[in-house]
């Protein structure tokens, strides 16, 4: 007899963990943007010589809360990997969850280095450590998204592919509203967090598009020709690459001059154009399928 409630499936647990990781991403950005990452006097895992700081909204608490959320999320990620090995899941699902756990210590170590400055690691608060922290977090987030999509029945359809592309396009547009490339809003700590929530949602939509398009090529998605699926996959991959560049430029990894702002704007526009192009190809494939059905019915 299983003690697990019937509603708690692997896919739901993995999806919740992916959501926790997305929130952690936004919390980390907000913590860094407010300067709270430096508030604990260059200590880790302690915060200003305390295990638990004063429970008031101040820089110490923000950094401490970020660490606690990261710890809880880390245990959830380990749980996803454990479940994938205990349950009857395919090799790629187990590989994705195992890789997420394997690189988790790297993320923890880089995070610790980032906030120690002249403490444990001199010069820890640098562009290189910020970049590494962001890239490793994105890898973990992507692996969890893949595990969620692979860890269950994969009754793919053109409708699900359209939904994934819709999430990607909406996410890119929403991220543009908060992006530092578009002078629409002040790029405040809150706006930065919102930018990454939107951008990562778009990224997840593109990951889902790649998975669904690959299934279509392998004959697992009805209503979509393999040739159209290949084009959709190429366009989605290009949109993802451009979006990752905008996510990197969203942090202070370069001296953000007018030139870099233009580069950021171009990559953001490119991500949208490629995702929209994939949606257009899918729409054309749907129209062709409808014409074929109509002709066959005459």
Summarize the structure.
The protein is mainly alpha-helical and 298 residues long.
Describe, in plain words, how this protein is organized in 3D.
One of its GO terms (cellular component) is membrane. With 298 residues, the protein is mostly helical. It folds into 2 domains: 8-153, no CATH class; 154-288, IL-4 antagonist (De novo design) like domain (Four Helix Bundle (Hemerythrin (Met), subunit A), Up-down Bundle). 71% of the residues lie in helices and 1% in strands. The chain is built from 9 helices and 2 strands, in the order αααααβααβαα. It has helices at 10-33, 59-86, 91-102, 104-114, 127-150, 158-178, 189-217, 226-249, 258-297; strands at residues 156-157, 221-222. Strands 1-2 form a two-stranded parallel ribbon. The protein is globular and about 60 Å long. The N and C termini lie far apart (56 Å). The model is unreliable at 289-298 (pLDDT under 50).
